[in-house]
C-alpha cells in the first residue's frame, strides 16, 4: 500500500514532468512561444500540435510562423479580441507585408487563453500543420508594439511589423505524454512555469542556451549583425560622407578632395547595398518593401553620378565655368542624397529600430543638412562678393568686349591693361586662380 502509493506518486511526478516537456522560446521579455508535441503525433509524424503564445498587451499583435522567411510560411498571429480573450489567426505568408488569412489551417483556441492583466495568452491546438516534428525546424517570429487590436475576426488587418527573428525548435525534444492541452492542469489552472523546456532548464542538455529544444539558429544572429553593419555603413555614406564631400567642393575648391571622398562614399554605399541585399534575401523581403526597392533605385541611379562629375570637371577645365552638365551633376546628386537619407529612415522603421537609433539618425541628418546649407550659402556669398569686386573695377564697355562669357575677370583685366593674353583653355595652368572655390562649384 505504502509502496504502491509511492510508486503512484513517482509516476505522477514523472508524468507531470513529461507532461510539461514542451519547448519554449522567448523572443524578448514576456514574448514567448511554446510548442508541445503529443507522443501520438511524434510517433506518427503528424497530428495535433499544442501552442502557447504570450505577449504583453502593449503589443498590437504577436506572430510566429514556420520556416525562415515569410514567403511560404504558415503563420499564427494573436491579438486581443476585445472581450477579454484572444484571437488566433492562421495566415499564409506570401512575402508581402500582410499575410492573408489561411482558413485551411485548423486551429482551436483552448482553455487558459485570455487577457490577464497586461499579458495576452493564447493556448491553441493545430491539427494539420506541416512541420518536422522529428528534428530541428526553423521558425520566424515578429511582433508590433501599439494599441490592442480588439478584433475577434481572424482576418483583422494588421500593421506592418519591423524585424523578424528566427530560431530553431527541436520538436523531437518537445514531446508531451497526452494529446491534450499541456498549458493547464486538471483544474484548468495555468501551468506555464512548470515547463521543463522553458528557461528553467531542468534536465536541459542544451546548456549553451539553457533551453532544451531551442536552437538559436546562427543565421538569425548573423543576419542581425549584418543588418547593423549595413545600417552603419549606408548611413555613414549617405548621411555624413556625401553631404560633407559635397559641401567641401565650393568651400575648398579642390576637386580631387571632393572626388576622392565621394569615391569613398560610393564604395561604402555599395558595401552597404551588398550587406542589405544579404539581409533582405535572408528574411525574404527583397524588393518587397519600400526600403529595399527605393534603396536599389537610388544605388543604381548613383552609378551615373561619378560620370556626371567627371563630365562636369572636363567642362569646367575647358570653359572655366559651369555648364548644363554641372547643374545636372549638382541636382542629380542632391536628389539622390536626399532620397538616400529618407530611405535610411525607412530602413530604421522596417527594422523596428529603437527610438534611440531613430533620434540619433534624425539628429545627425539634421546637423548635416544645416552644415550643408550653411556651407553652400557661405560659398555663394563669397562668390557674389568677388563678382561685385571684380565688376566695380570694370567699365561696362570693357565687359561687352569680352569674347568668353565665363573667362576669369582678373585675367581679363590683365589682358585689357596689356599685362598678358588670357589663356582660358589651359585651366590647369591656373590651379591657384582658376580652381579657386569661388568659381569651380
Ligand atoms: C478564451 O477562449 C477559450 C476558447 O473558447 C476558452 O477556453 C477560454 O476560457 C477563454 N478565456 C477567457 C478568459 O474567457
Ligand atoms: C525564466 O524567464 C522568466 C522571464 O524572463 C524569468 O522571470 C524567470 O525567472 C526565469 N526562470 C528561470 C528559472 O531562470
Automatic annotation (TrEMBL):
Transmembrane segments: 227-248, 255-273, 293-312, 324-347, 359-379
Biased composition (Low complexity): 188-216
SMART domains assigned to the protein according to its UniProt record, in alphabetical order: B561
UniProt keyword terms in alphabetical order: Electron transport, Membrane, Signal, Transmembrane, Transmembrane helix, Transport
InterPro entries, per the entry: Cellobiose_DH-like_cyt (IPR015920), Cyt_b561/ferric_Rdtase_TM (IPR006593), DOMON_domain (IPR005018)
Chief place of localization: membrane
Claim: DNA repair is one of the keywords in the record: no
Region (Disordered): 146-165, 179-216, 388-441
UniProt keyword annotation of Transmembrane present: yes
Span of domain DOMON: 29-146
Subcellular location: Membrane
Protein's recorded name: DOMON domain-containing protein
Naturally occurring in which organism (per UniProt): Zalerion maritima
Amino acid at each position: 500500500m505504502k509502496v504502491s502509493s509511492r510508486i503512484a506518486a513517482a509516476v505522477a511526478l514523472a508524468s507531470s514532468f513529461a507532461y510539461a516537456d514542451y519547448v519554449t522560446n522567448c523572443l524578448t521579455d514576456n514574448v514567448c512561444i511554446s510548442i508541445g508535441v503529443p507522443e501520438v503525433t511524434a510517433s506518427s509524424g503528424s497530428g495535433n500540435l499544442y501552442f502557447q503564445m504570450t505577449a504583453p498587451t502593449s503589443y498590437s499583435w504577436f506572430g510566429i510562423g514556420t520556416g525562415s522567411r515569410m514567403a511560404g510560411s504558415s503563420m499564427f498571429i494573436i491579438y486581443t479580441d476585445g472581450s477579454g480573450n484572444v484571437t488566433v489567426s492562421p495566415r499564409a505568408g506570401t512575402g508581402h507585408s500582410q499575410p492573408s488569412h489561411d482558413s485551411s489551417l485548423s486551429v482551436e483556441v483552448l482553455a487558459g487563453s485570455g487577457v490577464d492583466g497586461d499579458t495576452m495568452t493564447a493556448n491553441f491546438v493545430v491539427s494539420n500543420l506541416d512541420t518536422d516534428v522529428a528534428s530541428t525546424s526553423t521558425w520566424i517570429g515578429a511582433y508590433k508594439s501599439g494599441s490592442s487590436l480588439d478584433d475577434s475576426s481572424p482576418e483583422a488587418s494588421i500593421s506592418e511589423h519591423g524585424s523578424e527573428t528566427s530560431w530553431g525548435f527541436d520538436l523531437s525534444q518537445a514531446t508531451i505524454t497526452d494529446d491534450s492541452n499541456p498549458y493547464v492542469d486538471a483544474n484548468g489552472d495555468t501551468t506555464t512555469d512548470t515547463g521543463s523546456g522553458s528557461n528553467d532548464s531542468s534536465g536541459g542538455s542544451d546548456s549553451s542556451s539553457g533551453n532544451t529544444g531551442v536552437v538559436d539558429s546562427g543565421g538569425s544572429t548573423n543576419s542581425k549583425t549584418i543588418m547593423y553593419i549595413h545600417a552603419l555603413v549606408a548611413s555613414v555614406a549617405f548621411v555624413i560622407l556625401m553631404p560633407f564631400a559635397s559641401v567641401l567642393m565650393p568651400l575648398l575648391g579642390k576637386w580631387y578632395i571632393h572626388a576622392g571622398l565621394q569615391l569613398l562614399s560610393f564604395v561604402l554605399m555599395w558595401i552597404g547595398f551588398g550587406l542589405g541585399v544579404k539581409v533582405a534575401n535572408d528574411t525574404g523581403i527583397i524588393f518587397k518593401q519600400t526600403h529595399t526597392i527605393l534603396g536599389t533605385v537610388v544605388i543604381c541611379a548613383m552609378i551615373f553620378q561619378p560620370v556626371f562629375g567627371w563630365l562636369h570637371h572636363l567642362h569646367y577645365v575647358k570653359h572655366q565655368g559651369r555648364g548644363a552638365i554641372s547643374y545636372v551633376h549638382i541636382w542629380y546628386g542632391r536628389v539622390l542624397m536626399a532620397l538616400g537619407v529618407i530611405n535610411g529612415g525607412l530602413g530604421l522603421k522596417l527594422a523596428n529600430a529603437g527610438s534611440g537609433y531613430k533620434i540619433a539618425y534624425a539628429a545627425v541628418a539634421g546637423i548635416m543638412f544645416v552644415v550643408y546649407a550653411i556651407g553652400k550659402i557661405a560659398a555663394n556669398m563669397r562668390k557674389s562678393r568677388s563678382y561685385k569686386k571684380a565688376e566695380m573695377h570694370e567699365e561696362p564697355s570693357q565687359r561687352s568686349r569680352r569674347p568668353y562669357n565665363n573667362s576669369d575677370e582678373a585675367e581679363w583685366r590683365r589682358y585689357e591693361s596689356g599685362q598678358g593674353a588670357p589663356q582660358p583653355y589651359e585651366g590647369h595652368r591656373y590651379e591657384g586662380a582658376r580652381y579657386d572655390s569661388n568659381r569651380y562649384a
